[in-house]
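Hallway conversation turned thread

IA: we were arguing at lunch whether anyone had actually written out Polar amino acid transport system substrate-binding protein end to end. Turns out nobody had. So, for the record, here is the sequence (266 residues) and right after it the structure tokens. Reply here if something looks off.
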Amino acid sequence: MFRSKFRFVLTAVLSLSLLTLAGCGSTNTPAPSSNPAPEEKVLRVGSDIAYAPFEFMDEKQVATGFDIELIQALGADMGYTKVDIETAAFDGLIPALQAGKYEAVISAMTITEDRAKSVLFSDKYFLSGQYIAMKKGANFKSLADLKGKKIGVQLNTTGQYAVEEKGMETNKYDTTPDAMNALISGGVDAVVADSPVVLWFQAQNPTAQIESVNADSGEEYYGIAMKLGNTELAGKMNASLKKLMENGKYNEIYKKWFKVDAPKIK
């Protein structure tokens, strides 16, 4: 009888202890969150960040410029939580895009028939043209006046193509600022490059004795490049670009960098 009572009490104590341990274990297990953190959605973008005022590094080595602010605004409108911008040489941007390193490229890239064979462009987002930069007193009026002169251009840009289509040789540089600095030092007689970049360089270097004229090579339009076949991203990009142009955000960014209202893009 004593042993039976002892066994009963012992069994009851053990059962109670196990229940207590089980209860303790359940309180230490964190309850699943009813509001999980949203997954980060990143737009990977390539750009040659050496082309002020479109893309360049500020004094804190942070990418800034018209293109940078535009792609950030577009990314936010498309629902991306982050726009990750990586710099690369201009002539390497399209191969890297094709290889899947980037989802988009924004780098003051002119829409051309040849490039459109390799990438899918967004709708036009910027009107530009070519300018001839020269030392004051050179008195060049057109591309024809540059025959026999040393002409600086950025590699694989429409400035290079415009000059070479006239049958003239070019001195090629990795960036337009490199070509402009060669003009200052006397390494070239003229530079042919996108008008906003030439005018920005002149404004930033007022003592350099540089002047410029329209090269009269026709209008050019910039586009955001995406991988061929990526129609889903292109559709979203164009919808957001249209929205920003209609709601005033595009003009706000344009006016910040160019001090005038954006022209109508045909």
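OS: looked through it. The chain has two domains: 42-128+221-258, 130-214.
IA: good, adding that to the notes. Residues 58 and 117 are 34 Å apart (CA to CA).
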